[in-house]
Amino acid sequence: MLTTKKVSLGIIGSILILIFSQVSAELIETLLVLFKVPEFISIAISGIIYIFLTYFLLKQFVIKFFHRNLNDFGIGHFHVKWKWVIIGLLLPVVVTVIYLSIPGHIISTHKSTLETLAVISRGIFFTGFGAGFVEEMVFRGIIMTLVKEKWGMMISIVIPSLLFGLVHIIGMSFNLLSILLVMLAGTMVGVMFSLIAYESKTVWNNALVHSLWNSVIISGIFTISTKVDPYNISHYLLRTKSFLITGGQFGIESSLIALLGYSLVAYYGYSELKRG
């Protein structure tokens, strides 16, 4: 029988593993660069290490602390359903196309080939698949399972989703409206990922959807925003200042358009879950 204390320690422990793995992967990247390994290769290696180090540490954690294995937490044999591959591709692409129909203009920053490769590598291997897979193993794998076993399915969808939203505002100097938008969007996208996990009985499908979203929307390869970030390769600068369209200080991930996308996919996941 899981106690509240054990669930709480499980949540804290898994988040600490995420933080430790991320810092360790970034340190390895720095060391590789110091040893003259090309930056884009160093980033790719660190992103892969980020995923596998997290997996290994979570495995040890659940074995030693809960006397269980990762299969119990939906982190078992890797397999994905084609419908989630398609939805994972469609969601960020459709959102991007909608934004391109809103008045704005494209700006490209001038970067060398190596700089461009570094941005692409970080966007795909670290921000994209690294963050996508690690966050889903932690939030929808460990945390959601523990909360479900203690308080039931509904609470298990809400609590990790709220935590997921909260994580995205820690350390940010946002105004109140932006904080509310981020919490709403973070919670909604968390609900979406949770329903995908429940429907497919594994974290790998929601991890893939998460990774594809990150790789397209926030990778820095093609960024939709209201101002230029010199790190990014290219931008679509929106002319509108509407808070609901721009997503405020956090960006388009917390916009009304993104929220609508999350809601539609969440509804589909819920429908498939009920049907199954």
UniProtKB/TrEMBL annotation:
Keywords: Hydrolase, Membrane, Protease, Transmembrane, Transmembrane helix. One of its GO terms (biological process) is CAAX-box protein maturation. The keyword Secreted does not apply. Residues 124-215 form the CAAX prenyl protease 2/Lysostaphin resistance protein A-like domain. The keyword Flavoprotein does not apply. GO terms for molecular function: endopeptidase activity. Signal peptide: none annotated. InterPro entries: Rce1/LyrA-like_dom. The chain crosses the membrane at residues 41-63, 84-107, 119-139, 151-170, 176-196, 203-224, 244-270. Coiled coil: none annotated. Belongs to the UPF0177 family. This is CAAX amino terminal protease. The lineage of its organism: Bacteria, Bacillati, Bacillota, Bacilli, Lactobacillales.
